[in-house]
């Protein structure tokens, strides 16, 4: 029985990057031998075990055979006679198909070190085409290693997979999982560029795919093309270290521009409401987590008003805060403002321009939250008011405080 470090840990060490989780392959063992050694089984579909001391995953060397469509359409064979090379051959990319033995020697039967040096993402074998998740994984790796290119033969294979309908069999949970991880990489735009190039974006997120080629007013958007703008916004969300919810909101904030009637272009009147409706459908289809869906909805509906809020008086600002549910969820409102800042700065030549509405609205919210609602409620009760009448008194007190605050700005 021999154990080898495999996959991303080997790749990242060779790249000089910090190594996170470490995965291991065990050659020449059986499930019973692993149990006898104290390993704990965790794999339902695959023979995976946790080390009794480190808790790290150890998988028996295995091969796979295509037996159906999609991610689960495989028959797995794990046995003592499966070699390390057999196991590495089933992996997706050459840079992920390397192993390291106990002495630190790298086993690289598929040229992973060569492709690391050349900064290329290349599939290991034609078996890549058997699992459509690999398209998403490669796109995600492109977002992480954004100076890597996709090998021409790999790009061609992915286009053939899309044409064959393989991506149509992907389950929503796995699509969201890979998209979410890609959104959190250093250059999320690369993920969408790769998916768009092979045609997968049109199948998985047609609402996003249709934004390329849609013009915008050049006085607001020097980059003009809506798809180009979206990629700039996504990369700005990474630059400003936005959360997943912020980055998802950036992804969906302008979806409605893809459905603007051609006769009114490049103006996009009412795109905010259309974006919110499209996001609702996307959220249901991909089973997007609630926090991401809710933040994206607010940003889609209100980003135009938030951008223009420096022109608003106290009543309009107060109504805007209420529509954003900022008083009840102030932390989420700060994320709304961050997504809007990404939108404003995700424009050609404006990447380093300060987002003026941000500080003004944060201060406005702080002013409103500083109102002593307990004291206002007590005064209302003393006057015999109840229920909605008390809420109205609190709103009046908050508006009064905001009016005074803005009059001094």
From TrEMBL:
It comes from the Bacteria. One of its GO terms (biological process) is RNA repair. Keywords: ATP-binding, Hydrolase, Magnesium, Metal-binding, Multifunctional enzyme, Nickel, Nucleotide-binding, Nucleotidyltransferase, RNA repair, RNA-binding, Transferase, tRNA processing. InterPro entries: CCA_bact (IPR012006), HD_domain (IPR006674), NT_sf (IPR043519), PolA_pol_head_dom (IPR002646), PolyA_RNA-bd (IPR032828), tRNA_CCA-adding_enzyme (IPR050124). The keyword RNA-binding applies. The keyword Transferase applies. It catalyses: a tRNA with a 3' CCA end + 2 CTP + ATP = a tRNA with a 3' CCACCA end + 3 diphosphate; a tRNA precursor + 2 CTP + ATP = a tRNA with a 3' CCA end + 3 diphosphate. ATP binds at residues 8, 11, 91, 137, 140. CTP binds at residues 8, 11, 91, 137, 140. Its cofactor is Ni(2+); Mg(2+). GO terms for molecular function: ATP binding; CCA tRNA nucleotidyltransferase activity; CCACCA tRNA nucleotidyltransferase activity; cyclic-nucleotide phosphodiesterase activity; magnesium ion binding; phosphatase activity; tRNA binding. PROSITE patterns: HD (PS51831). Monomer. Can also form homodimers and oligomers. NCBIfam families: PRK10885.1. Catalyzes the addition and repair of the essential 3'-terminal CCA sequence in tRNAs without using a nucleic acid template. Adds these three nucleotides in the order of C, C, and A to the tRNA nucleotide-73, using CTP and ATP as substrates and producing inorganic pyrophosphate. tRNA 3'-terminal CCA addition is required both for tRNA processing and repair. Also involved in tRNA surveillance by mediating tandem CCA addition to generate a CCACCA at the 3' terminus of unstable tRNAs. While stable tRNAs receive only 3'-terminal CCA, unstable tRNAs are marked with CCACCA and rapidly degraded. Belongs to the tRNA nucleotidyltransferase/poly(A) polymerase family. Bacterial CCA-adding enzyme type 1 subfamily. Comprises two domains: an N-terminal domain containing the nucleotidyltransferase activity and a C-terminal HD domain associated with both phosphodiesterase and phosphatase activities. This is Multifunctional CCA protein. It comes from Aquabacterium commune.
